[in-house]
Write a structure and sequence with these properties.
The complex is a heterotetramer of chains A (125), B (409), C (136) and D (141).
Chain A (H helix, E strand, L loop, with lengths): L1 E7 H5 L3 E3 L5 E4 L2 E5 L13 E6 L2 H8 L10 E3 L3 E4 L2 E4 L10 H9 L16
Parallel strand pairs in A: 2-8
Antiparallel strand pairs in A: 2-3, 4-5, 5-6, 7-8
Chain B lengths: L1 H17 L2 H14 L4 H25 L3 H44 L3 H18 L2 H12 L4 H9 L3 H8 L10 H15 L2 H13 L4 H36 L6 H4 L1 H42 L13 H19 L4 H26 L3 H4 L6 H28 L4
Chain C lengths: L2 H4 L3 E3 L5 E15 L6 H4 L16 E13 L20 H8 L4 E4 L3 E5 L6 E4 L11
Parallel strand pairs in C: 1-6
Antiparallel strand pairs in C: 1-2, 2-3, 3-4, 5-6
C-alpha cells in the first residue's frame, strides 16, 4: 500500500546518519538538493522534490557561508534512498558512491598500509 | 554457571573501569585537604553517572544511534559543531592526563623518568587500539584496574577511627583552615571526576557497536548500577587513606607518589606493588576509552564509519583521528607540563562540558519516535530533572570558582 | 536551490513586511508499507538487537516539497519538541515551545519568490497566502 | 601604595602559602624516610616521592623569590622563609642521597650521605621546626 508520510527536513532528514545497503555509515546528511520536475531547476510555487543528499563541503558553507560550485559537491541521489528512520538507509553499497573518496583515499594510502590495518579485530586476540 | 561468570565479569570490569587518573588524583587531593567532608559529592556523582550512562546506553541500543549522532541531529550542525569541538578538546585533555598517569605510575615502579615513559605509553595505547579485540581489551584493563582495591585493603589495615571518618562525612564538616570557595571548587572537581562525559560516549558507542538486545541492555544496566557504586567506594577509600595518613601530617597531595604512601604504610612493598599495577592498568584502560571517545565524537558528528569492531581500513578516518589524538596527547606531555595539573584541569572542564551531552540525551530518551515504549519512566525523568539542575549549576559555577580560588591553591 | 538556502531565510509578505524566518522545510515522502511486519514487535524478541527495526521499515519513494514552517521569533534548534506533544523532561519542552510560539506552515504553492543572491536569503509570499497549523 | 606591590597583609599571606607547601614537603619526606627505614616502601617509590618534594620546594622557593614585599615586616618574613626553605631543601637532597645509598648506589661513606635514618630524621625535624616557626610568624595555620 502506498501513502504519504510527512517529514520536516530539520527534524527528520538533516544531520541524520546515512547508512549504505550493508549498514555501513557513509556520512551525515549535510544538505538536501531540490529539483523541479524532470530534473530542472527548482522554482518557487511549482512542484519541487528532493533530488539528492549533499555531503561534505556543503556543511562548511552552511556553517560559515560562501558557496561551492554545485556540480563539485559530493552527492547521493535520492533515488538510492530505501528507508527513512532514525537513520537514512540506502539501497546501494558505499563503494559505489563517489561521496566517500576521503575515506577510500585514507584506506588505500595510509591506514591500509600500516601493518595490521586490514586485520579483523574480532577474528582472534 | 557461565551466565553468573559473565555477569560477574561485567560488574568487575565496571568497578575497575570506574576509577581513572582523575578520580585518583582528585580524591587523594580532597582527602588530604578536606578529609571525608566531600564524600557526599562522590555519592552525588556516582548516582549521576549511573543515570546518565544507563540512559545513554538505552537510547543507543534502541535507536541504534550513538551520542554524537543524536547531539548533531537535535542541536543542528552549528551548535553541535561547537559542542563536538568542546567535547573533543576535553576528551583530549583527559587522554593526555591518562597517558601522563601511566608514565607517572611507571616512574614509581622503575625510577625511569616519566619523559621516557610517555612515548612508550602512547605507542602501547595505539597498538592496543589498532590490534586487540574490544572484549579482551575491556576485560583485561577492567580486571587489572580492580587491583586498586588495594586502597580499601590499606584503609582497613590502617585501622582508622571510623567514627571520626563518619563525623567528617555526615554532616559534611569542612576543616576551618580552608575557604568556602576552595571547598566548592573541589566539590565541582570531584563531581566532574565521577561524571566524566567520555565514560558515557564510550558506553553508548559500545551499545551500538555490540548491537545490544533487550537482554544485553538489562545486563549492562545491572553492571552499571552495581559496578559504578562499588567503583565509587573505591574512590572514597582513596580519599579516606589520604584523610587518615596525610591530612593529620599536614601533607597536601601534589604528586602521584604521595597518593601511594598510605598504602605503603599500611601494607608494605607487596600491597604497594599491587596498587601501582592497579594504577597502571586503570590509567591505561581509561587512556584506551578516551582515545576511542575522541574518535567516536568526531566520526559520529560527521557521519564517518567508526568502531573498534571494524577492520581499521574500514574505519580509516576514525583510526586516523585516534592516532592524531594520541600524538597530540604525547606532544602536550613532552612539553614537560605537570600531568597532575592536566588532570585537575580535565576534571573541572569535564564538569563544564557535561550539560552539552547530558541535555540532548535526556531529551531523546523522552522522544517516542526514537524510543517507542522504551521512553524514560516517571522516576527516571524526575531524577533526570534533578540532575539537569545539578549538572547546569556545576557547569556554570566551575570557571568562576576556578578563577576565584586560583585553581584551588 | 538547497534546503540549506531556505532554512533561516527571512520571510516577507507580498508588500515587503517581514513575518518571520523559515525554521523548517516540510516534505511528503511517498512510502510503501511492507507486508505484515511490525516495528514494536521486533523489540519483544530478547535475542534480536533492539535497534534492528530502526523505527519504520517502509520503502521510501519521492520526497515532495510541501511547504515552509515560519516562526515569527528566532530561528534555531527545536530539540524536536515544537510539533509534538512530548512534555518531559520538565522544563525543557516548556521553554522550547515558549520560544517558538506562533509558528505556522505556508504551502510551497503560496511562495512567490526566493531571492538566493543576497545574504540573508529572502522568501516572498504570494498575495492571499494562508497560515496553516504547523502540527505534524 | 606603589605599583607592582601588594598590600602588606597580602604579601605576608603569600609567604605563609609558600611555607604551607614547604611544610607539606617536609612531612612527606619524613613519612617517606620513615617508611623506607622500616622497609615498608620500595626504593623507586621513595626516590620518586623525594624528587617530587624537591619540585614542590622549588616552587615554594620561586614564589618567595619573586615576591615584592611592600614593608619591613613582610620583607623580614620573606627572608626568613627563604632561609628555612633553603635549609629544608638541603636536608631533602641529603635524604635522596641516603635513599640512593640504601638502594645499593656506590655512595656509602660519601660525606654528604647521612649515617643512618635517625640522624637524617633529626636534621629533618630541625628544618621542619624552622619552617613551622617561620609559618606561625607569618600568621599561617
Amino acid at each position: 500500500m502506498t501513502r504519504e508520510r510527512i517529514v520536516d527536513a530539520r527534524l527528520h532528514l538533516l544531520s541524520r546518519q546515512v547508512l549504505d545497503a550493508d549498514g555501513e555509515p557513509v556520512r551525515a546528511v549535510d544538505d538536501l538538493e531540490l529539483t523541479g520536475p524532470d530534473g530542472q531547476e527548482a522554482r518557487p510555487g511549482e512542484a519541487v522534490r528532493v533530488g539528492a543528499i549533499l555531503v561534505g563541503p556543503s556543511l562548511f558553507t552552511r556553517l560559515f557561508g560562501g558557496a561551492v560550485l554545485a556540480s563539485r559537491l559530493p552527492r547521493i541521489a535520492w533515488s538510492d534512498v530505501a528507508h527513512v528512520g532514525t537513520a537514512i538507509e540506502l539501497s546501494v553499497r558505499s563503494d559505489e558512491l563517489d561521496a566517500d573518496w576521503v575515506e577510500l583515499w585514507l584506506r588505500d594510502h595510509l591506514v591500509g598500509r600500516i601493518p595490521g590495518g586490514r586485520h579483523d579485530p574480532e577474528a582472534d586476540g | 554457571m557461565k551466565k553468573v561468570m559473565g555477569a560477574a565479569l561485567g560488574i568487575l570490569t565496571a568497578i575497575g573501569g570506574f576509577v581513572d587518573i582523575g578520580d585518583l588524583v582528585t580524591n587523594a587531593v580532597v582527602g588530604s585537604r578536606f578529609g571525608l567532608s566531600l564524600a557526599w559529592v562522590v555519592a552525588v556523582g556516582v548516582v549521576g553517572i549511573c543515570l546518565f550512562a544507563s540512559m545513554a546506553g538505552r537510547v543507543a541500543a534502541v535507536s541504534g544511534r550513538a551520542t554524537f549522532e543524536i547531539v548533531r541531529e537535535r542541536l543542528g550542525p552549528r551548535v553541535a559543531g561547537a559542542n563536538v569541538v568542546a567535547s573533543f578538546a576535553i576528551t583530549l585533555l583527559t587522554l593526555t592526563a591518562e597517558i601522563g598517569g601511566i608514565a607517572l605510575a611507571l616512574h614509581l615502579a622503575s625510577s625511569v623518568e616519566p619523559r621516557l615513559w610517555i612515548p612508550v605509553a602512547g605507542l602501547a595505547v595505539w597498538l592496543v587500539l589498532w590490534r586487540v579485540k574490544f572484549e579482551v581489551m575491556e576485560n583485561v584493563a577492567g580486571l587489572m584496574g580492580l587491583l586498586l582495591v588495594g586502597f580499601a585493603v590499606a584503609l582497613f589495615l590502617l585501622g582508622p577511627d571510623w567514627g571520626e571518618l563518619l563525623r567528617q562525612a555526615v554532616p559534611p564538616s569542612p576543616p576551618g583552615t580552608e575557604h568556602a570557595a576552595t571547598y566548592w571548587y573541589y566539590a565541582v572537581a570531584l563531581f566532574g571526576a565521577a561524571m566524566t562525559p567520555y565514560e558515557v560516549f564510550f558506553f553508548s558507542s559500545g551499545a551500538v557497536e555490540e548491537r545490544w538486545t533487550a537482554k544485553d541492555l538489562a545486563t549492562n544496566r545491572i553492571n552499571v548500577l552495581i559496578g559504578f557504586p562499588l567503583g565509587g567506594l573505591l574512590s572514597l577509600s582513596i580519599a579516606a587513606c589520604a584523610a587518615v595518613v596525610l591530612l593529620p601530617a599536614g601533607i597536601e597531595v601534589s604528586a602521584l607518589s604521595q597518593i601511594v604512601l598510605p598504602v605503603a604504610q599500611a601494607g608494605g612493598p607487596l600491597l604497594l606493588a599491587v596498587v601501582i599495577v592497579g594504577i597502571v592498568a586503570a590509567t591505561f584502560g581509561a587512556a584506551l576509552e578516551t582515545a576511542l571517545s575522541s574518535g567516536y565524537s568526531v566520526a559520529q558528528y560527521l557521519g564517518w564509519s567508526w568502531g573498534k569492531f571494524r577492520r581499521p581500513a574500514h574505519a580509516a578516518r576514525f583510526h586516523v583521528t585516534m592516532i592524531l589524538a594520541v600524538l597530540l596527547g604525547v606532544g602536550i606531555l613532552m612539553t614537560s607540563v605537570d600531568p597532575v595539573m592536566v588532570t585537575e584541569m580535565s576534571v573541572v572542564f569535564s564538569a563544564v562540558a557535561l550539560p552539552l551531552t547530558y541535555v540532548p540525551i535526556l531529551v531523546v530518551a523522552n522522544d517516542p519516535q526514537y524510543m517507542g515504549r522504551y521512553v524514560n519512566g516517571r522516576f527516571v525523568n524526575a531524577l533526570g530533572t534533578v540532575y539537569l539542575v545539578i549538572v547546569v549549576a556545576a557547569a556554570l559555577a566551575a570557571v568562576p570558582l576556578m578563577i576565584a580560588t586560583g585553581a584551588g591553591s | 536551490m538547497n534546503v540549506g538556502d531556505l532554512l533561516d531565510a527571512h520571510v516577507e509578505e507580498p508588500e515587503g513586511a517581514r513575518v518571520g524566518v523559515v525554521v523548517d522545510v516540510r516534505f511528503a515522502l511517498a512510502v510503501t508499507e511492507p507486508e505484515g511486519e511490525g516495528g514494536e514487535e521486533d523489540r519483544e524478541n530478547p535475542d534480536a538487537p533492539l535497534s534492528e527495526h530502526t523505527a519504520t521499515r517502509d520503502e521510501v519513494g519521492a520526497a515532495r516539497l510541501v511547504g515552509l514552517l515560519v516562526s515569527p521569533r528566532s530561528a534555531g534548534s527545536f530539540l524536536g519538541y515544537e510539533r509534538t506533544d512530548v512534555r518531559s523532561p520538565w522544563p525543557v519542552p516548556q521553554l522550547v515551545r515558549r520560544r517558538h510560539r506562533g509558528t505556522f506552515l505556508v504551502d510551497w504553492a503560496d511562495v512567490a519568490e526566493v531571492r538566493t543572491g543576497s545574504e540573508p536569503v529572502v522568501v516572498r509570499l504570494a498575495a492571499g497566502y494562508e497560515r496553516r497549523s504547523p502540527a505534524l | 601604595m606603589h605599583r607592582g606591590q601588594q598590600e602588606p597583609g597580602q604579601a605576608t599571606a603569600s609567604v605563609a602559602d609558600a611555607l604551607v607547601e614547604a611544610r607539606s614537603a617536609a612531612e612527606t619526606t619524613r613519612l617517606t624516610v620513615d617508611l623506607l627505614a622500616r622497609g615498608r616502601v620500595t626504593g623507586p617509590v621513595a626516590d620518586t616521592a623525594l624528587l617530587d618534594q624537591l619540585d614542590a620546594l622549588d616552587e615554594a622557593d620561586r614564589a618567595l623569590t619573586t615576591l615584592v614585599p611592600p614593608d619591613v615586616t613582610s620583607s623580614d618574613r620573606r627572608t626568613e622563609g627563604l632561609t628555612t626553605v633553603g635549609d629544608l631543601t638541603d636536608v631533602v637532597v641529603q635524604a635522596r642521597e641516603w635513599v640512593a645509598a640504601r638502594s645499593g648506589g656506590d655512595l656509602a661513606g660519601a660525606d654528604a650521605v647521612p649515617a643512618d635514618a635517625d640522624a637524617l630524621l633529626d636534621d629533618l625535624a630541625a628544618a621542619t621546626d624552622a619552617v613551622e616557626q617561620a609559618l606561625s610568624e607569618a600568621g599561617g595555620p
